[in-house]
């Protein structure tokens, strides 16, 4: 019956594109990213085999048991087979998820690194803004009513607070390679989301919550940040970049920003 | 077993009583079916417009300007218009198509007959449930035409975007409010329907129709109704809270410190996550509401058209119950990235993997049913077979998304869009097509055209694979969802050819649906007359005329002596035993 070869051809075509990796992840830039890709591959191989076998079996029974004058077999089932394939599925599925648990725990349940470089992220309709504490290591006080986007003060920094005078505000995220970062995320209006493909990390940014995201990027480069939670009509334009640079370059950049602040 | 509810024994008279405010579950089922058909036409048109815009974001289309003078000035679809169409597409498809046709359409028509009853337990409530759904649809359609336009917060309507009113931007004024009102009315209608289905199944089974002799379709309608009763109650509550936030100054879902469009808002003390918990506590059972009846139809059809009993009836029942029960425990898998506790995420993840087990059991048992069978390739059977293939594909991508470790990348990408379209937008729809081709003769007394049906099937089956499989690759490449276009990011440039391919596939597949509509409407009036049991199927609806008389069994009370899938019984006079055949089939 025609449906059998149609199912088989579709299956082979789909498997081909996964094997050929025609459209694929960008290379990972962190240890987490490498672990992520391993878990993805594990899941892909297991589900790929299940996918192929299930579609193949469907096509096979369609073909083999088409009505050609035969008698159908009278059976209500087979408890032995039910037990076998139910147990196998349960073990496989729970096994897969337990394997991924380590990766999840590493991102969200590790003890926080006290030496992580703190960087604040403020998300709003429709831009990301980043803030560094400057040489004094302290974030200055902010007030919502002092916010002035047009005037370059998206955080609402209070001029009266000395700690804030050296804060560095940036439209893009700059980080040194090989160092733990603590990204402290806030939203000013609706839910947004921070996503860097190369980091294999994503986190909703929720108004009323302060959400820390710890990560370490190891490979220098510039990586795009697309907002990944519907935030209104400008959602598709809400873009920033993360630039990973050597420690030396990062220090140079901070010095440049500090000098610009003084003007 | 309680005695059946009293029911009028006279046929209804007059056009209004027979076709408009009918109390007959069969008429109500057909009303629901056509409401869903109308809705799917709107929903499908919206999706074609969306796919067009994604690959031609700057195109000038003259009639856009006529329909939407503000949102499409000069004929160019604005991003807010795109998001509104997307919101309405999802809402209309999930509520007015997927929650309506499989359960309220086919379920209303066939549950009473399949269990040997004259009608539903509460015929007046049944009539009210349809007309309440109709009002909900009218309010939803009205949201298209109000000032400010239809809402753009997605079918999920997350606050604060949906909770703070017009200050959040276009579409978030009256359009969003009407959306919530429509959904709240829909919740009321669904609760009425759920009560009816549950009472009917428990109380109105005829003599001999034990629970374990019910067709699997009845089991799925029963469990779906329980999911609806518990789930829609929560959605209704959430909707009330959201409307209060928008109109009465409450802050259930908005924290302090919000600044939108340069205004500092007055809200304080609320949590956006609260909405997500309430919404998804409904939203996850909702997707099982959308798929379970299709699973029931698939089981029924695979057995009928393989001329073999269903493989593992008891296991299938336990799987349906298991899916229903576990379906209430996995809502957090929609919220892995939401900022909720990472420990909760792990718990939800294990439960999500667990729910894959009964789904796998069903798939193995479907293949087991076909094994050793004598397969008749009617169009109904083709759609049931297609359902199995699509359910496998759609279900498997869930194994990636159910792991929070992997969801760290895939959340809110096209991988998710591909997953839920495969499982809801396609498998569930195939369940509806299968049900249509199988039950049309009983509903309308005529046969659909098989040749046209099969051409429509192949175009649709290949077409949906072409539209939705590439979405998984887009997700792997990191393409976010709910983007009006893909021109602002470097990495999306090389993904645009994939979008173009999907758009073209969508055009062809949408056009192919014309074949179905021609088949349906032509056959209602001009199709060959249908015999009582054209498919030689065993369940009770095939023991009454096509279409059935107003009280289904002509005043008689059927007595059931056999299970629902007694095909190929050795020694029987024919290859199928009707459920009401005498105990000793050689007698009489």
The poorly predicted ranges of chain B are: 1-6
CATH class of chain B: Mainly Alpha
Please report the total strand number of chain A as a whole number.
10
The general outline of chain A is elongated
Total domain units of chain B: 1
Most residues in contact: chain pair: A-B, 95 and 115 residues
Helix content of chain B: 55-70%
CA-based gyration radius of chain A: 26 Å
Largest pleated sheet of chain B: 2 strands, antiparallel
Total separate domains of chain A: 2
| Structural category of chain B | mainly alpha
Overall average pLDDT of chain A? 95
Spell the H/E element sequence of chain A.
HHHEEEEEEEEEEH
What's the N-to-C terminus distance of chain B? 29 Å
CATH topology of chain B: Cytochrome C Oxidase, Chain A
Largest sheet of chain A: 5 strands, mixed
Helices and strands of chain B, in N-to-C order?
A: HHHHHHHHEEHHHHHHHH
Helix content of chain A: 25-40%
Overall residue-averaged pLDDT value of chain B: 95
CATH fold type of the largest domain in chain A: Immunoglobulin-like
**What ranges of chain A have pLDDT less than 50 throughout 5 or more consecutive residues?**
none
């Amino acid at each position: 019956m025609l449906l059998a070869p149609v199912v088989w051809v579709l299956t082979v075509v789909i498997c081909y594109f996964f094997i050929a990796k025609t459209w694929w992840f960008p290379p990972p830039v962190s240890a987490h990213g490498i672990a992520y890709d391993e878990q993805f591959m594990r899941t892909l191989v297991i589900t790929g085999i299940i996918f192929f076998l299930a579609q193949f079996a469907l096509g096979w029974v369609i073909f083999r048991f088409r009505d050609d004058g035969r008698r159908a077999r009278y059976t209500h089932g087979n408890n032995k087979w039910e037990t076998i394939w139910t147990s196998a599925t349960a073990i496989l599925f729970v096994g897969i998820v337990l394997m991924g648990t380590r990766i999840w725990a590493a991102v969200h349940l590790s003890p926080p690194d006290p030496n992580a470089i703190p960087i604040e992220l403020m998300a709003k309709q429709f831009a990301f803004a980043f803030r560094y504490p400057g040489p004094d290591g302290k974030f200055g006080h902010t007030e919502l009513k002092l916010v002035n986007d047009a005037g370059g003060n998206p955080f609402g920094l209070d001029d009266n607070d000395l700690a804030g005078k050296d804060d560095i505000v940036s439209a893009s995220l700059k980080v040194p390679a090989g160092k733990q970062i603590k990204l402290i995320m806030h939203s000013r209006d609706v839910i947004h989301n921070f996503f860097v493909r190369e980091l294999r990390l994503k986190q909703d940014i929720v108004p009323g919550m302060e959400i820390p995201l710890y990560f370490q990027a190891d490979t220098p480069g510039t990586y795009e940040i697309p907002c990944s939670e519907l935030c209104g009509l400008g959602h598709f334009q809400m873009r920033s970049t993360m630039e990973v640079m050597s420690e030396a370059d990062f220090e140079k950049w901070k010095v440049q920003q500090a000098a610009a602040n003084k003007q | 077993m309680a005695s059946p509810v009293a029911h009028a024994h006279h046929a209804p008279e007059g056009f209004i009583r027979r076709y408009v405010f009918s109390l007959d579950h069969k008429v109500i089922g057909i009303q629901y079916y056509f409401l869903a058909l109308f809705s799917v036409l709107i929903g499908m048109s919206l999706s074609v417009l969306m796919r067009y815009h994604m690959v031609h974001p700057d195109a000038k289309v003259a009639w856009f300007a006529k329909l939407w003078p503000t949102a499409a000035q000069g004929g160019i679809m604005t991003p807010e218009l795109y998001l509104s169409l997307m919101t309405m597409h999802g809402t209309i498809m999930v509520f007015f198509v997927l929650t309506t046709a499989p359960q309220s359409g086919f379920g209303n028509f066939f549950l009473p007959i399949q269990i040997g009853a004259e009608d539903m337990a509460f015929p007046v409530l049944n009539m009210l449930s349809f007309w309440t759904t109709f009002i909900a649809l009218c309010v939803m359609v009205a949201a298209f035409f109000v000032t400010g336009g239809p809402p753009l917060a997605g079918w999920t309507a997350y606050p604060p975007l949906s909770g703070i009113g017009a200050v959040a931007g276009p579409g978030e004024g009256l359009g969003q409010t009407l959306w919530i009102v429509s959904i709240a009315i829909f919740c009321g209608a669904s609760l009425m329907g759920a009560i009816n289905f549950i009472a009917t199944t428990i109380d109105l089974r005829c003599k001999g129709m034990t629970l374990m002799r019910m067709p699997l379709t009845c089991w799925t309608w029963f469990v779906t109704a329980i999911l609806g009763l518990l789930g829609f109650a929560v959605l209704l509550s959430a909707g009330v809270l959201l409307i209060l936030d928008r109109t009465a100054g409450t802050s259930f879902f908005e924290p302090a410190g919000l600044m939108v469009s340069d205004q500092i808002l007055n809200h304080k003390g609320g949590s956006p996550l609260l909405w997500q918990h309430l919404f998804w506590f409904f939203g996850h059972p909702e997707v099982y509401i959308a798929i379970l009846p299709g699973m029931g139809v698939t089981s029924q059809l695979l057995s009928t058209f393989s001329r073999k009993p269903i493989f593992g009836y008891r296991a299938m029942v336990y799987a349906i119950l298991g899916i229903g029960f576990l379906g209430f425990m996995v809502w957090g898998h929609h919220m892995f990235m939401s900022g909720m506790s990472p420990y909760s995420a792990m718990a939800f993840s294990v439960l999500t993997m667990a729910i894959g087990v009964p789904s796998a059991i069903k798939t193995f048992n479907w293949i087991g049913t076909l094994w050793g069978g004598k397969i008749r390739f009617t169009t109904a059977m083709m759609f049931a077979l297609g359902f199995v293939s699509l359910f496998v594909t759609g279900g498997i991508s869930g194994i990636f998304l159910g792991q929070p470790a992997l969801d760290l990348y895939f959340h809110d990408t096209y991988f998710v869009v591909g997953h839920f379209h495969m499982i809801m937008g396609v498998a569930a729809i195939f369940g509806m097509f299968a049900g249509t081709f199988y039950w049309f003769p009983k509903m309308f007394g005529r046969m659909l055209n098989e040749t046209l049906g099969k051409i429509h099937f192949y175009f649709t089956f290949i077409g949906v694979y072409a539209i939705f499989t590439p979405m998984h690759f887009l997700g792997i490449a990191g393409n976010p969802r709910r983007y009006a276009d893909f021109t602002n990011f470097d990495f999306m440039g090389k993904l645009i050819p994939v979008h173009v391919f999907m758009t073209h596939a969508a055009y062809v597949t949408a056009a192919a649906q014309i074949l179905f509509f021609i088949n349906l409407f032509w056959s209602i009036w001009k199709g060959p007359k249908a015999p009582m049991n054209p498919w030689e199927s065993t369940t009770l609806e095939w023991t009454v005329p096509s279409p059935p008389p107003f009280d289904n069994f002509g005043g008689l009370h059927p007595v059931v002596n056999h299970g629902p899938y007694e095909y190929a019984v050795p020694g029987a006079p024919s290859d199928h035993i009707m459920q009401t055949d005498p105990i000793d089939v050689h007698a009489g």
